[in-house]
Description:
The protein has twelve helices and eleven strands. The strands form two sheets. A nine-stranded mixed β-sheet has the order 5-4-6-7-2-8-9-10-11, sandwiched between helices. β8 and β9 form a beta hairpin. With 306 residues, the chain is an alpha/beta fold. It has a single domain, classed as P-loop containing nucleotide triphosphate hydrolases (Rossmann fold).
Amino acid sequence: MDAPKARGKPFPLSGQSNTKFKPVQAPVSYRIPTGVSDFDSITGGLPPGTVLLLMGEAGSGHNEFSLTSASRITYAIDEPVEGSSGFHMGAHHDIPLFPNQVTYVSFTRSREETMAEIRHTFPPYYPLLLSKHLNYIDLSGAYFADSIVPPEWSRSKRSILDGNNSTNESILSTMARELESRAKNSLVIIESLSDLLARSTVNKEDVVTLVKGLRRRAKDWRGLIYILLARNVAEHWIEEALKDSVDGVLSFGWVQNPHKSARLRAMWIEKSMPLLAHVPPERQGRFIINVSGSSGLVTTQYERID
């Protein structure tokens, strides 16, 4: 498809009033939908190569967002629907670009544990389709190898007697090597940095440096990367350094509605020029979200933050 040509009268350079300019061709613009359709219809999705930090309180929705996104995207890969561009992108004119697969990184959980959670959360066809397109990187053996956890608990083939202080550093380098071979054109979910930052043997500066390097490399992979982080697990300076090291931050938390006794989950865009540039001013607040077994995470309403 030919890109539309830019319109407008060219302006002359100083002293060259008769100079003619050729119209500049506008490049084709692609965006990756998150799969949370009502959110995508407002924001238009994310540019390829985006690294997004999903940061929140326990149970507030950041994990549910990533799993909903993974399930919906694999559904779009496996069951493409004609005219789905308008469904995902709303009135935005960017071309939707879907990843080819989901690459899931876990430091503490096995593939079986993660898939069991998805099966108990979503309709049967979601985990069925996800399993067909899932690359799972299980680093739990290395994570627990130098801990008090028995090998039988972590299903690690390595004895804890062989552990040493460099094990956690090798986890970071192993993750980088695995992503280098698997992350191209992929939705990557790293679950979660909280597991690493909670360990006293982990070099926190190495974690931040790795995320900075990941941000650079992701532009060549042209996929989408979610990094999950529980709020208040790490020191404040680490949280701020990680926010500064990524392209965008989605924050999740529990809020109290003055008209209701129950607490509600909320999501807001803390950082991301490509997202905020597309959100109308009247919707630049927080999104009230809900998680259901039939559709995963959805946004239900919007609230201004005064």
